[in-house]
Design brief:
Blueprint (H helix, E strand, L loop, with lengths): L10 H9 L7 E4 L17 E6 L2 H11 L10 H9 L5 H10 L18 H13 L5 E5 L10 E5 L17 H10 L5 E6 L6 E14 L5 E11 L1
Helix pairs in contact: 2-4
């Protein structure tokens, strides 16, 4: 499932780094689970896997999926618009359609359509494949500030500074985020995805990738995704 700001291309590589810190005595916590592109590859032998996000429809979808829910394989524009205007009618369906059937995976950012690509079917195949890697995951709708982690390995993929904001979280405070990231490592190991970080955070890994953003030559832009730890 396409997800705006998601890690579809890098999920497995990021998970390899995170998994190197995990043990069967530590919990895994992901405060910004989004499209679960990293989560699906996290080692299932850790103490527990706890996944959070501020979007209640997305969380409802993941909960339903691991409980046996099957999203649609096809969707019309009329159905898309109806779901957009009646979000609470079927929250799990809304979570799937709002991202998986929207342009660039942006929350109801416009009905995704193409002559050569069936976006709904692709989203269906993607989440059904992920479902196998989400066994024993516990999903809850919480803002990251509400979490009180202890003795955990935490992977954070927050809204990036100086990039397009998430419609359902337009006022994300990056400075406040980094202040909290300085507190959590007292009782946890915290790994953070970003393009850059404050000077007291060390880059432990970087990956060259392409974004869905196109430049003036209609080519996808190269970016360097980085993983950071305090100190």
């Amino acid at each position: 499932m396409r997800y705006f700001g998601g890690k579809a291309r890098l999920g497995k590589k990021i998970a390899e780094v995170v998994n190197s810190y995990l043990t069967n005595e530590k919990d895994y916590i992901e405060p910004f689970v989004g499209g679960a592109n990293v989560t699906q590859y996290i080692w299932n032998g850790c103490k527990g896997r706890y996944c959070y996000d501020i979007n209640p429809y997305l969380i409802e979808f993941w909960k339903s999926l691991i409980s046996g829910y099957f999203p649609p394989k096809n969707l019309t524009k009329e159905e898309y618009l109806y779901i957009k205007n009646n979000k609470d009618e079927n929250k799990d369906l809304t979570g799937f359609v709002g991202f998986g059937c929207s342009f660039a995976g942006k929350w109801f950012g416009g009905f995704a359509k193409s002559r050569t690509r069936d976006y709904c079917l692709n989203a269906y195949n993607s989440v059904m494949k992920k479902n196998k890697g989400l066994i024993r995951c516990i999903f809850n709708c919480l803002f990251y500030q509400e979490i009180n982690p202890i003795n955990a390995i935490i992977y954070c993929d927050p809204p990036y500074a100086n990039t397009t904001k998430y419609d359902y979280c337009p006022n994300f405070n990056s400075e406040e985020f980094w202040q909290i990231m300085r507190k959590w490592p007292k009782n946890n190991i915290v790994i953070i995805s970003e393009y850059s970080a404050p000077d007291d955070f060390k880059c432990i890994e970087e990956f060259k990738t392409k974004t869905d953003i196109r430049n003036k030559y209609n080519k996808k832009e190269d970016r360097i995704e980085k993983l950071f730890k305090l100190g």
